[in-house]
Amino acid sequence: MSDLHVYDTTLRDGAQQEGLNLSVSDKLAIALHLDELGVGFIEGGWPGANPKDTEFFARAQTELHLRNATLAAFGATRRAGGNAADDPLVRALIDSRAPVVTIVAKSHVRHVESALRTTLKENLAMVRDTVSFLHGEGRRVFLDAEHFFDGYAADRAYALEVVRAAMESGAEVVALCDTNGGMLPDQIADVVADAVSTTSARVGIHCHNDTGCAVANSMAAVDAGATHVQGTINGYGERTGNADLLTVVSNLQIKRGLPLLETGRLREATRIAHSIAEITNVPPYSRQPYVGASAFAHKAGLHASAIKVDPDLYQHTDPQHVGNDMRMLVSDMAGRASIELKGRELGYDLSDENELLVRVLAKVKALELRGYTFDAADASFELLLRREVEEDATFDFFEVESWRVITDARGDEDALSEATVKVVAGGERVVATGEGNGPVNALDHALRRALAPAYPELDKLELIDFRVRILDAAHGTDAVTRVLIETSDGSTSWETIGVAGNIIEASWQALVDGVTYGLVRAGVPVR
Amino acid sequence: MSDLHVYDTTLRDGAQQEGLNLSVSDKLAIALHLDELGVGFIEGGWPGANPKDTEFFARAQTELHLRNATLAAFGATRRAGGNAADDPLVRALIDSRAPVVTIVAKSHVRHVESALRTTLKENLAMVRDTVSFLHGEGRRVFLDAEHFFDGYAADRAYALEVVRAAMESGAEVVALCDTNGGMLPDQIADVVADAVSTTSARVGIHCHNDTGCAVANSMAAVDAGATHVQGTINGYGERTGNADLLTVVSNLQIKRGLPLLETGRLREATRIAHSIAEITNVPPYSRQPYVGASAFAHKAGLHASAIKVDPDLYQHTDPQHVGNDMRMLVSDMAGRASIELKGRELGYDLSDENELLVRVLAKVKALELRGYTFDAADASFELLLRREVEEDATFDFFEVESWRVITDARGDEDALSEATVKVVAGGERVVATGEGNGPVNALDHALRRALAPAYPELDKLELIDFRVRILDAAHGTDAVTRVLIETSDGSTSWETIGVAGNIIEASWQALVDGVTYGLVRAGVPVR
User: Fold this and answer.
1) Closest CB to B186 among A24, A181, A223
2) One fold for B370-375+387-397+461-527 and B398-454
3) A212: distance to nearest CA of chain B, Å?
4) Lesser CB count within 10 Å: N end or C end of chain B?
């Protein structure tokens, strides 16, 4: 393993992205994914500066069990004229209990004078006081030197003096930040090399993508001696975003041969990038390097036969390295193998069922093309597989005749939803209605009420989460809606999926799968 | 003006992007935009290889009046064992009448042998014969050396021999192509420098973005002596796309001081990038450098007061250089300064309106606590601010009495949605219904139908995007749904927001804001 730090700031700087708004639970879920990926550090937010981040660190103490990563709290140097020990924001960093504290400091003379409105001397004192206080309290202290590259151009000596002040006071890393993102790789390389050779600091790099060079700038910094790289998943961040951490790590690991992540971890990159996009609800960018849906997609054409003979001639790396797929190949062994494995989990030995495996794989690929995503809906995939392996009738618990949901409101009153569901179950036709604070809630109530006479076991089921994603929203009209529903039976929960042009229809599909899976799981026979 | 070639291949290599499909008229319209931008060369397609491209060049003769750019036709070297004068695809290049012909040739030994299935010697003969024939016919000939960088790594001497063969036969440019996109800037720089110093060629560069470095690679090539840069608008292209030409040109012109485009042309960049996206129907990427909607959008509230004093401290270049704008995003991190700045954008001087600023800020914070996120819904924030600054009645275009939406389905049929809306507008009570492929679509149709008698201006509005987010249950209450809607009037679009327990109610709020904003924007009086 290389000792280069992989430092993720998705939860803090990434959250600055326009339109991105993460709840505390979102942040905890993302942190788990980051830890699974194997990053060294997870910057969780700015405790004390906003209540949500304070709560994140409080809940992390009990709820977030990290396997590999170290949690970092972000904060600023103490106020001008005060002292660190009495500064409430500095205290909040201690209270967060994060083992690493990353302090942002000004290193650009004009920013010190016109944004911070203090003297150059006091700014250095603020750095020294804050770093040494936190260090004295037993924290590992990293410094983010804000606007460093612009500051270096304005006053090289002062910018480097900030680096030295931090190191001398106990900082372990000084990350040089291209805060405005206007640098090009040669400038980054020159400045990093100077900082590495003229200070004793462990130098880090923090880039933004305003010139389209955030990845290259991060690479240039590492080549020039930086040993700490900051970035965000999917390049989230303010304006044009931060350096895309997965691209930087993939480049360093695959192209430069630096073993940054534990063996096998990079193979989770595509899945993790997409899982995090599900949480942020920012549509994944299909042209994203390495992990994008199109990253290894070849338009069928004149190269098709040559690709079949020797794929390496037409791809810059093996997509398996990052858990992605070349998309021209229809049947690949990996796909079949994972379906076989899933079957074994469910108690089916499919090792000799090659035809069935090919059929299931083709079905999955066709459905995913229409917008299904089975890695987020295990229960729906399990039903699909069981239906192929066993007789269809095994799962015909009920037949849907029709459903209808009405939502209405008068003036400024709250809207009400009411659903009617007509089914045949246990040999009886049942018409049931349900109300809810939304159309899906109402449908859920009506469906379970209709099934209650035949299947009283459904009484304990509860719809606990509902997520909606509009796919291909390019021109509104042909957009398809993907709905994920999580259902619980009190002791465990499962995810099901529906995809349709109509959001209510997609929700209905997911509801029906959720209820059906509940019956399968409980071992209830068809009545 | 620098004599560096700006060579656009949006219409040829860009069109290889997954899901992109351009008609001949689309291509002609894009070519006009490219010419207006001021690129030197427009690669129009491959005449002879597909009928659409043959037609493009035929129609370009009479319909495309280029002010500045030169049209280039793309093709390949003649077939192995034949001769150029008799090759129908080479003849098609002559017939296209394009003054520049760009020929793709193999320069990688393995590709010659296993994809082209000919000898290394014959491949060189194909280059010489094709280039000298076309040159003899009075065409300017450029050569695209395919897989050059991988080929150089496999057999440097042979790769360079291909460059020499082309130059000696009359080629004006040899563009070195990183066809698989796997290179990093330092590799590009080394190879380009070698090609420049050991051949007499005018060297060009053609990059793909598979390592996230297409822009930096193009810059590195220019720094190493390349004087011809290829790329595509919005970085369109196969897999991760080609180098984004506008980012490369902006970097070279703004950061390196190379005057590539005529004075004032770069100021059209944002408008032209978005106009071309309208034609390709690929949603613009908001985080795109220089021209993206978020490229100069600031969220962090702590910076706002400093930005007010000195915007240059917080942006890497003046957005006006590329025809973009600085935007302040209002979020829960916002302060009074950012609201004042936003007011200034809308034409209100609020510098002395401290009480109003405090009131607006309190309102924003209270709404964000309930789940609103105004940085993603500029138009809703603008309505909120305008309602505080002006009389409320200024925006009372209509009064909603009630609305209702029904979604139903029988058996396996597709669901249908139908909405009824009752409003008072222009002094009349109107009841209108609308259908749609989803409840929000149906409500949108019904609402605009109800308002049409009083406000015929709404006819041209279109709902173009719809996003849904379920927010965590806060303090034991029910989950809340946030809906963002994007509405377009054909030339511009705006985002509005709704938050409610019921997803349909949240959608309704966002729809009402979207329509109201459309009326405000068009300067329509209350009727």
Assistant:
1) A223
2) yes
3) 6
4) N
Asked if the Cβ–Cβ distance from A219 to B184 is below 8 Å, we say: yes
> Parallel, antiparallel, or unpaired: how do β-strands A41-45 and A5-8 relate?
parallel
Task: Looking at the structure, give the CATH architecture of the domain made up of residues A5-280.
Answer: Alpha-Beta Barrel (3.20)
Using DSSP, state whether B438 is helix, strand or coil. Answer: coil
Tell me which chain A residue has its CA closest to the CA of residue B210: A289
Give the one of A186, A255, A470 whose C-beta lies nearest to B211's C-beta.
Answer: A255
Nearest C-alpha of chain A: how many angstroms from B149?
11
Note the ipTM here: 0.77
Q: Which of B114, B181, B403 sits opposite A313 (nearest CB)?
A: B114
The second-level CATH assignment, the architecture, of B398-454 is 2-Layer Sandwich (3.30)
Specify the pTM.
0.76
Give the burial class of A197: count Cβ atoms within 10 A of its Cβ; 0-12 exposed, 13-18 middle, 19 or more buried.
exposed
Alpha-carbon span B140 to B431, nearest angstrom: 67
Helix (H) or strand (E) holding B262: none
Partners of B404 on chain A (C-beta within 8 Å) are 406-409
Q: What is the pLDDT of residues B354-401, one digit of tens each?
A: 888 888 888 887 787 777 877 778 899 889 988 888 876 678 899 999
Answer whether A504 sits within 8 Å of B439, measured CB to CB.
yes
d(C-alpha A53, C-alpha A73), whole Å: 9
Mean pLDDT by 10 residues, chain A (527 residues): 91 91 92 97 94 94 95 97 95 97 97 92 98 98 98 98 98 98 98 96 97 98 97 97 98 95 93 90 89 81 58 89 71 56 79 85 78 78 88 84 96 90 95 94 95 93 82 56 87 88 94 95 90
Q: Which of B161, B153, B101, B154 is nearest to B128 (CA)?
A: B161
Domain limits, chain B: 5-280, 297-368, 370-375+387-397+461-527, 398-454
